[in-house]
Amino acid sequence: MNNKTVVVIATLDTKGEEAAFVKQQISALGGHALLLDIGLIGEPGTAPDIDRATVIQSGGSSLETLLNNPQRQEASPVFIAGAIAIINEMLDNDEVHAVLGFGGTQGTSNCAAIMQALPFGLPKIILSTMASGDTSAFVDIKDITMMFAVSDILGLNPLSRTILSNAAAAAWGMSQSPFKLQRNSEKAVIGMTNLGVITDGAMHAMKLFREAGHEVIVFHAIGAGGRAMEQLMKEGHIQAVFDYALGEISDEVHGGFRSAGEERLTVAGKLGIPQVLCPGGTEHIGLFTEANVVPEEYKDYVSVFHNPIIFVPRLNADDMRQVAKVISERLQHTSGNATMLLPMKGTSRYCIEGAPLYDAEADSAFFEELQKRLPRTVEVQLIDAAAEDDVFVELAVTKLLDMLD
Description:
By secondary structure, the protein is an alpha/beta fold. 41% of the residues lie in helices and 18% in strands. It has 14 helices and 14 strands.
């Protein structure tokens, strides 16, 4: 196999012995490891390949300045910026093929911030004492793999040697992958959002897009999914959008866990990327709750449980008008081709006639508000079908394909 390079990020003043062991393990596998030091106060416990002074200088400061009054809150942004700049320059020259970092709370936070700024597709692994729990703050929307260190990363012993060796082997193995994030044809790559309640329609759309020669990247629209899709648009990896699930907007407005933040639904329009939109899954929000317990504030709402701990209340007419208002506001800057298709018989399988969240009055209020508020740059079409119906999906796919011709 090719001799690939793994950048190992660590505070070498406290993790020098462990870093040297990881470097040795990668070398024994036939790889090449570069130790990048993000430790400040103590002397490195092993020789770095990229020393702290170089990292700090690349981050816009100097070792002397940071040591004058060493504070984590001042040093961390400098180390993060410096490491990002160094690794990105190496990427431009095809000199790095994976990144491995390790540490406790501070080391994990710094490694995560560095890796979140690196491109999708580059293997990124963090061995961390923080990996047994909520890792969303560290992973965010990037393809970061986290491993639980089990013990503190402090000294070599039978357990730490095994775990560190596994992390080294994982990074080296991932560096061997022959795939890079790139288009496989001249056809546009299509980004599509999806939710479980419209998955049949998404699968049908995927089949049609593929038959037309397009590859499709599908995103689970539960917050991180929509944000990841829009970041990939910014990086140029997505050239057209079928935004089939807009439930993230409903959760943003009404406090559900699927919120994707204030930028959601603005990026494609600003970039001028062709987009077909469908308000799939907007009729409800998702809330975590005790198993099968209805929150007091939703006692009067029609609702179902998506699973025992995910409570799904149906939004009423006034709630839906608020969602329509925010969707319309976020599409105000839309340029290029954009069409909103409104499925008049239901925005998901939860709210079609006979389903547990059916509410024709709320649907009508929502559709009317959208028609009133959407900007003129967004074409609006009313379709006498539900979002998962073949006729709706086929019309939506044809609409986007026509934009790409």
